[in-house]
Design goal:
Two copies of one chain form a homodimer.
Chain A (H helix, E strand, L loop, with lengths): L9 H7 L5 H9 L3 H10 L2 H10 L2 H8 L4 H10 L2 H9 L3 H11 L6 H4 L5 E3 L5 H14 L6 E5 L5 E6 H6 L6 H4 L7 E2 L4 H11 L3 E5 L5 E6 H19 L14 H28 L1 H6 L1 H5 L1 H24 L8 H34 L6 H32 L9 H24 L5
Helix pairs in contact in A: 2-4, 4-6, 6-8, 13-14, 15-21, 18-20, 18-21, 19-20, 20-21
Chain lengths: ~450, ~450
């Protein structure tokens, strides 16, 4: 690095941001022109905003924290160390402070934790012209986003909703209650964000009203919050599919110790389970000693089971996350996966069979009983692939049934499970067919 | 099924939809009350809409196709068989027909293919009050979504943008050019949808203007389209991570033959590559014959390499998809993964070492040279895990460098690659350390 942070423009600062220390970030940020600094601050991740804020002087901290709408401010407070939280909430103006405190009562990953309390309100007896004038007054004060105006009664219960497009298109003298939609999609305040994102995407809505148990409207969850949620949930699912705990942070932001822990825990569990293969192999030690040729196919056998199992579990986990496959579909899944697994097993068996015959013709590698060896390999492949496919597809459903996250039946986990049973299938078939000849 | 489709309500029809034939779907749909049918049709996936439409009579078909805004109509036409497309486009009213034809010139997965041509326009010299009146007139005619009004000059070039919130909050007599934002984020019409979704999510914008090569504004891509894109791309990445081609359709909608093909192609490739393990094992046949105990650890060795490789590749692929890791970061990734792999390797080595000693104490399984065997296993684990981690993390970067999709370096692919090299590492270390004793 030849440039010092204070000489940087917003674009340059953004480029070097990941490799700067906390003080360097604060220093670079402090030297940005006011206009750029606003945009820069808003474009940072909540985590970076929180870190940066704690490096700034109190006056500056107040200015930046007040730039955030209440839902983002609440997220930011949740990112901070518990001992810093109260001080930051106290920097807010009284109205926002009340809003943020209410939002902090919710979990981060439920509807209440995602919602904004600043939605547009109208009354049912207003005309369209009056409503538009009233909304312009609300916008001047505090209103985060405008897609829908919500029609509330005196008890804050939701009676209807009118989109801005409909409001704009309607004649100015019609009363709101004639324009509003009364078939409403609402969500309860404690609904999980993953369920929420599926509803928003499915319904093609831009915002969903959040109601408390008494039916009072508390806020709106908007689709731009949900895009982040969808990315986040997909990242979690992909990382779990890779056989590790979700990182919950960008790759380079995770410290080495944390990285080793998040990956190591699963690896150790898999390693200890996989030790069963050594036990299984030891069990068939005599067969291996008599026919070493059997041992040479062990990696091929177990990887075939592992690969088909990974495919099936990945497919079913994702289909469940998207709501395409539900628990009650389990029997349809079994039938489909049985047929698919059988077809895949036969394809691999034919290739394996031909491969042994060809190698035998070229190099006479497999001795006089090569045909029997080829048959053992082919039959084992059918059995192992079929077993891998059915196990891989059922495991996510079993986990869901037990109330666990199906994403935990990751590819490596399924592969490990299928490895041990694959060995048993392979050596059992060998024992049956080769007894008296090779064994 | 005891009920016939015509007796169903919209909710019931939705529930049984997946298991109905095409005619049954059309029959059930035709019997819905008009209001429910509208919502029902709009809630269907584009694929289902296209199938349903072809089952209906021409008069009905016209009614439903005209319900769709131009971007959705274009998606629908793209789902149809090429020979049906012209007939469906001809059902549209002339203005929409022209819009849809323009959209059909774009690829489905680029900005032009996602955008809507119906955006809100204002002129820079209008006052805020005039702009609101003008927008109300546009809304009455044709306007799909309202978040931003775009300020265009006579050549349709974009000069600025004003959000509805700002428009509502501004005094009525101020001219638009004083209210509008002139620092614009725009995208070119051929930008890929994945890049687009990252920009929208990062910038927290609700819509992005799409410009052609001459800088003329052609349409807007809205965030609700992007939510679908994000889900779609995540599904593709997850399915590729599971070692298969992306399905491009919901699980139960894929026919058995298609399912076998999409999974079989990769499985066969992996199977044929994995045959190298049989060759490698054959190469070490003498060692195995002399010390069968070595063979018993083969599955444990190769699965450890495979699991660590899967973790590393999954992590890097996802980080690249989210823009957290770029090609030029490769050296930082190598250093991180080297350190992580070393730590993970040592952890597994210690567990493996202790396991052999304990089993030896309990059952005397490993003979007089058990200590040497334990050392071979431990050293091999460090080497294999380190190698798996570095290979797994580098492969996605190498694929990107070659212009290929990093997601193709899936967990099973990495595992297969690491299996063969893992065997070579293991048996080479065994040869070195056990020569003269066990071997």
């Amino acid at each position: 690095m030849t440039t010092s942070p204070e000489a940087l423009t917003a674009d340059e600062l953004q480029d070097v941001w990941p490799i700067l220390s906390r003080d360097e970030r604060a220093e670079g940020f402090t030297f940005l022109p006011a206009d750029d600094a606003d945009d820069f601050f808003l474009s940072l991740s909540t985590r970076d905003q929180a870190e940066l804020l704690m490096e700034l002087r109190e006056g500056a901290r107040r200015r930046w924290v007040r730039l955030l709408p209440p839902d983002d401010a609440a997220d930011l407070v949740q990112e901070m160390e518990p001992e810093d939280r109260v001080a930051v909430v106290d920097l807010l103006d009284p109205v926002t402070r009340r809003e943020v405190s209410a939002l902090l009562a919710y979990e981060e990953d439920e509807a209440g934790g995602l919602m904004s309390p600043r939605f547009a309100r109208v009354r049912r007896e207003m005309t369209v012209d009056e409503a538009i004038t009233y909304l312009r007054r609300q916008a001047r004060r505090r209103l985060e986003t405008i897609y829908y105006a919500y029609v509330l009664d005196a008890e804050q219960r939701l009676q209807g909703v009118v989109s801005f497009r409909e409001l704009f298109a309607a004649p100015g003298d019609r009363p709101i209650h004639e324009v509003m939609e009364t078939e409403l999609v609402t969500v309860p305040e404690h609904m999980d964000q993953e369920a929420l994102s599926l509803i928003l995407a499915e319904m093609d809505l831009l915002a969903l009203p959040v109601l408390d148990a008494q039916g009072r409207m508390k806020g709106i969850v908007t689709i731009d919050d949900v895009v982040d949620v969808v990315q986040e949930e997909a990242t979690e699912d992909i990382q779990k599919a890779g056989g590790m705990e979700a990182l919950d942070a960008p790759y380079f932001d995770v410290g080495l110790a944390d990285m080793v822990r998040k990956r190591g825990v699963w690896l150790v569990v898999l390693f200890i389970s996989e030790m069963l293969t050594a036990t299984a192999m030891a069990h068939f030690q005599d067969e291996i000693a008599r026919a070493v040729v059997l041992a040479t196919f062990v990696p091929l056998m177990i990887s075939s089971g592992g690969n088909t199992g990974s495919q099936a579990s990945t497919l079913v986990i994702r289909a469940m996350a998207l709501g395409e496959v539900r628990l009650r579909d389990w029997w349809r899944v079994v039938r489909r996966e049985f047929a698919t697994g059988l077809a895949l097993g036969i394809i691999l068996a034919v290739i394996g069979f031909v491969r042994i015959l060809v190698w035998q013709m070229v190099g006479h590698m497999y001795g006089p009983h090569y045909m029997l060896v080829a048959i053992v390999v082919a039959l084992s492949l059918v059995g192992i692939v079929l077993w891998g496919t059915v196990t891989g597809s059922m495991l996510p459903l079993v986990l869901r049934r037990l109330g666990l996250d199906p994403a935990n039946s990751s590819a490596p986990f399924v592969a490990t499970l299928v490895d041990v049973t694959g060995l048993v299938i392979y050596f059992s078939i060998a024992r049956m067919l080769l007894g008296g000849t090779l064994l």
